[in-house]
Amino acid sequence: MPELPEVEALRDFLVDRLVGHEVVRVLPVAVSVLKTYDPPVTAVEGREVTAVRRYGKFLALEVGGLHVVAHLARAGWLQWRDRLPDGVPRPGRGPLALRVALETGEGFDLTEAGTQKRLAVYVVRDPQEVPGVSRLGPDPLAADFDERRFARLLEGERRRIKGALRDQSLIAGVGNAYSDEILHAARMSPFKPASSLSPEETRCLYEALRGTLTEAVERSRGLAAGRLKAEKKSGLRVHGRTGEPCPVCGDTVREVSFSDSSLQYCPTCQTGGKPLADRRMSRLLK
Q1: Which residue, of 148, 174, 219, 244, has the fewest CB within 10 Å?
Q2: 8 sits in which H/E element
Q3: pLDDT in tens, 201-218
Q4: How crowded is residue 22: how many other Cβ atoms within 10 Å of its Cβ?
């Protein structure tokens, strides 16, 4: 799933290619992709793109006073095309969900692999009309997101810290992969209760949060959209690396499986050398 660093890099990539250009065609291909109907998606046609913004994991185009907001979900992606194919794509053929064409002949496709169609596109007058955007917590890379604000967010938080970091209404933009990376950098168990953090542990976690996300954004900055997935994978230390040696201590990276996801961690760095029980506990990640 694209998380804050990848969506931020996509935003940077699109600013130079979209702003100042006219949208001439928006073609929904997958029936499930559009989540709004008023204004219609055709309302952005003939209008100029004036900005590209990010809200947590949401990517938003400002087009002539309207906003096209997309959430790529678990298996969605954006593919830039210097020249779009001629003709109208046929529904039900391949992963293509939506196509946006510019007056230059350039444009992009939103695609989604797999059978679980969760990629979502909204056309709204205000991004806050999108339910997922309106409930977002603060952006962890915002200038005003300091340690004190982070500590206040965790006050009274009863969940495990892994689940708290992934909650978009608490902190916007962090998902399964980067929460693993942040906790590894902080040398903290993913099952540690958030309410039990000492001031020193809170400070360490805050620094790991900001540092991990900032480094990931910098690694991705300037890359073409097609290279971002590979860059994300290459920069991960523990997530998705079950069975490999920890790059910090050399211990074997282990995994805990849940109903619809898994987490990875290093026992030596994070749990005092003790492996966590690998049992399905999906309620911890809700």
Answers
A1: 148
A2: helix 4-18
A3: 999 999 999 999 999 999
A4: 16
Q: What confidence category does residue 279 fall into, taking pLDDT thresholds of 50, 70 and 90? A: low
Render 239-264 in DSSP notation, one character per residue: TT-TTSBPTTT-PBPEEEE-SS-EEE
Cβ contacts of 56 within 8 Å, gap of 6 or more: 4, 7, 132, 133, 136, 139, 168, 172, 173
Contact 190, 262 (CB under 8 A): no
Q: Where are the alpha helices (DSSP H) in 23-146?
A: 131-134
| Residue with the two structure tokens 């978009």 | 168
CA distance linking residue 249 with residue 251, whole number of Å: 6
Token duo for residue 269: 């760095």
Rounded CA-CA distance 2/57 in Å is 7
At residue 12, the 3 state secondary structure works out as: helix
The per-residue pLDDT for range 122-145, each reduced to its tens digit, is 999 999 999 999 999 999 999 999
Sequence-distant (6+) residues with CB within 8 A of 173 are: 3, 4, 7, 56, 57, 139, 140, 141, 213
112/97 Cα distance (integer angstroms): 7
pLDDT digits (tens, 9 = 90+) for 30-66: 988 999 999 999 999 999 999 999 999 999 999 999 9
DSSP 141-186: TSTT--HHHHHHHHTT--SBHHHHHH-TTTSSS--HHHHHHHHHHT
Q: What whole-number distance in Å separates Cα of residue 79 and Cα of residue 76? A: 10
Cβ pair 191, 163 in contact under 8 A: no
Helix (H) or strand (E) holding 51: strand 47-55
The tens digit of pLDDT for each residue in 60-74 reads 999 999 999 999 998
